[in-house]
Amino acid sequence: MSNQQMLRWVWAAIPRIVVAAGCADGARTSPDAGHDSAPVADQETVEIHGIAYQFRSHDLLPGATISLAEWPDITAVTDPDGRYTLRGVPAGVPVTPRVELAGHAVGHQQTLTLTSDLERLYFQVVPDDLFELISGLLEQEGLPVDPDACQVVTTITDPSAAAAPDWDAFLARGDAGLVPGATAEIAPSAGTRIYFNELVMPDPDEPVATSDGGVLWLNVAPAATYTLTAQDPDGLYTFPEVEVTCEPGRFINASPPFWLTAILDR
Question: Cα–Cα distance between 11 and 200 in angstroms, integer?
């Protein structure tokens, strides 16, 4: 089997949102300095609810630790059904949920500022063995991952991702709801934007999102905050602005139904 054939097999066998981001060792062990102290006693707090699942199999994952990059002492552990409730989340300030599980990459969500409880924050948890495989294959294709940079991956979807009321409905969507022809930007400009082609492979020659819907920003310079946006060429949808916080070696992994999930415009 040639390298190209192997790449086609790998990308056809795994979900679009893994790609190079996180393939580096630094992405699997990214540190989070956090704050020096817990939130003040009289600060208003909210809860985050959701599920951790393995991206390859969609198996629900028990024993994963959910925390906040900014307040690592605020934690929850997923139950036998992969579900968690993260309590004591400071309201009105930026927080970045993260997931950690032995044998898997440490994954970060977008940075959120919450004023009420958040339901359905799903973590796609990526096994280390696939990172090692994909990293080697991408290196051969001229797409090296900088372990000191930040990797950002997301999927551009239509409103159906947010409309799914629970895990079963979300899982039943499969690959529905993508927005071919859409474009995405990161501000300030950083890294290398690469869309996925229809073979579920990151393709530098693709000018816009394909029927795969995936987009990555490879090797983003560590900085405080970036903003992701998307545009629909047909004008049917508008998209929210998504804030991400990049640190050295951080792997930021998309989590529908949030991120670049469209709002029905008309």
Answer: 5
Q: Are 224 and 202 in contact (CB under 8 A)?
A: no
Q: What is the pTM of this model?
A: 0.83
Give the integer Cα–Cα distance in Å for 148 and 145. 9
Q: State how far the Cα of 24 lies from the Cα of 69, in Å rounded to an integer.
A: 19
- d(CA 7, CA 10) in angstroms, rounded, equals 5
Contact of 193 with 184, CB cutoff 8 Å: yes
CATH superfamily of 3-264: Immunoglobulins (2.60.40.10)
Q: What distance in Å separates the CA atoms of residue 46 and residue 35, rounded to the nearest whole number? A: 18
CA 234-236-240 angle, to 5 degrees, is 110
Q: pLDDT of 100-122, one tens digit each? A: 999 999 999 999 999 999 999 99
Q: Could you read off the pLDDT of 182-237 as tens digits, one per residue?
A: 999 999 999 999 888 887 677 888 999 998 888 989 999 998 799 999 999 888 89
Strands (E), the chain: 45-54, 65-68, 75-77, 83-90, 94-95, 97-100, 107-108, 112-113, 118-125, 150-155, 183-187, 192-196, 202-203, 214-220, 223-231, 237-238, 242-246, 251-253, 263-264
Extents of the domains making up the chain: 3-264
Tell me the C-alpha distance between 127 and 106, whole Å.
Answer: 10
